[in-house]
Design goal:
- This protein has 331 residues and is of the alpha/beta class.
- It contains nine helices and twelve strands.
- The chain has two domains: 13-124 and 256-277, 3-Layer(aba) Sandwich (Rossmann fold); 126-253 and 296-312, 3-Layer(aba) Sandwich (Rossmann fold).
- Strands 2-1-3-4-5-11 form a six-stranded parallel sheet, with helices on both faces. A six-stranded mixed sheet has the order 7-6-8-9-10-12, sandwiched between helices.
- Helix 1 (39-54) runs parallel beside helix 8 (255-265), helix 2 (69-79) runs parallel beside helix 3 and helix 4 runs antiparallel to helix 9.
- The chain starts with 25 loop residues before the first strand and ends in a 19-residue tail after the last helix.
- 56% of the residues are buried.
């Protein structure tokens, strides 16, 4: 029942989900598309893994606009989907309205907290993983200048940027970190052309390693970095394969695990607040055959040591979401 990749019309949509069975889970992707090679695709990977391992079926939908968020939630709930998982902070307001009307339906929201008895709110310590890839960027940089391209300018993405800059400065206090955001609306997640333009501007300022935390926009960042012969860093999913030998690493945000867990728990899912960070495998960095030649044993040892120190509390990475300042970076 891999149903519906878009709404079929104002009166159609999820009402036509081909007989969604009661208690089948559902997944709603954020703007940017299921195959953004990043955040949404990580969510899809988790759902796919669940289906392959269990033989179960799930409903899914890709939104075309912000206005469809509440509609999607209500129609899946009416169809009997349970639990319903949504990928992205922007579902917060809609879920706050919908959850109370469907008390017997379990919901999971990723990257936002919604205080309701039937909601699991999953957030990630993105700043921790970003710190680690920032350390790698500083070690790999020859110019002493690295950069960051964010998607929509929101506190969550500033958290990535701030953690990255802290990691860079931990290795090289004299390094320069350039940071730019793509936009202030949802369109910022799916604008690879703008991502490319920003990357070129950063390269002109001396950047030789760029970290993209921008959803589908990041595809343009990584492509331009490869074309211009500098290193890039992917995000959320393992993007090393996109440009083998030119992507230094990817900051892993295990959205796939969050979706897999929610689907596995099903209607008996425990609700409440859930944090995924270094201590429980929620964030990290990717190593594989595509970047093995780029990361030396010394680089990896340095990052592994820092990872252990963060997990133990010996290193405290500043969290922009808790304190909207960033000692290592000026926005």
């Amino acid at each position: 029942m891999k149903l519906m990749h878009k709404f079929l019309g104002a009166a159609a949509g999820i009402a036509l989900t081909a007989g969604a069975a009661a208690a089948d889970p559902a997944l709603i992707f954020d703007l940017g598309g299921k195959f953004d090679k990043s955040f949404n695709e990580a969510a899809f990977s988790g759902a796919q893994r669940w289906a392959e391992e269990t033989g179960g079926k799930f409903a899914e939908i890709e939104l075309q606009s912000d206005a469809q968020r509440e509609q999607a939630l209500r129609r899946f709930a009416e169809a009997g989907a349970n639990p319903i998982v949504m990928a992205g902070f922007a579902f917060g307001d809609a879920l706050g309205q919908v959850a109370v009307d469907y008390p017997d339906t379990k919901f999971t929201i990723i990257d936002m907290v919604v205080d309701a008895p039937n909601v699991r709110s999953v957030v990630f310590n993105e700043h921790e993983g970003s710190y680690l890839v920032g350390m790698m960027a500083a070690q790999a940089s020859k110019s002493g200048t690295v950069s960051f391209v964010g998607g929509m300018d929101i506190p969550l993405i500033r958290r990535f940027a701030c953690g990255y800059a802290q990691g860079v400065k931990a290795v090289n206090p004299d390094a320069t970190v350039i940071s730019n955001m793509t936009g202030t609306t949802g369109a910022a997640w799916n604008d690879p052309v703008k991502g490319s333009e920003i990357t070129k501007a950063q390269i002109s300022q001396g950047s030789d390693v760029v970290f993209a935390a921008a959803g589908g926009t990041g595809v343009g960042v990584l492509q331009t970095a490869a074309d211009e012969k500098i290193l890039s860093i992917g995000v959320d999913s393992n993007q090393n394969y996109l440009h083998s030998g030119q992507v230094l690493t990817s900051m892993l945000k295990r959205v796939d695990n969050a979706v897999f867990s929610a689907f596995t728990d099903g209607v008996d899912m425990e609700t409440g607040f859930s944090v995924m960070g270094l201590t429980n495998g929620g964030v990290g960095y990717a190593m594989d055959e595509h970047n093995a030649s780029l990361v030396s044993a010394d680089m990896k040892a340095t990052v592994e040591a820092a990872s252990a120190q963060i997990a133990s509390g010996e290193i405290a990475v500043h969290d922009y979401m808790s304190d909207d300042s960033c000692p290592a970076l000026t926005f």
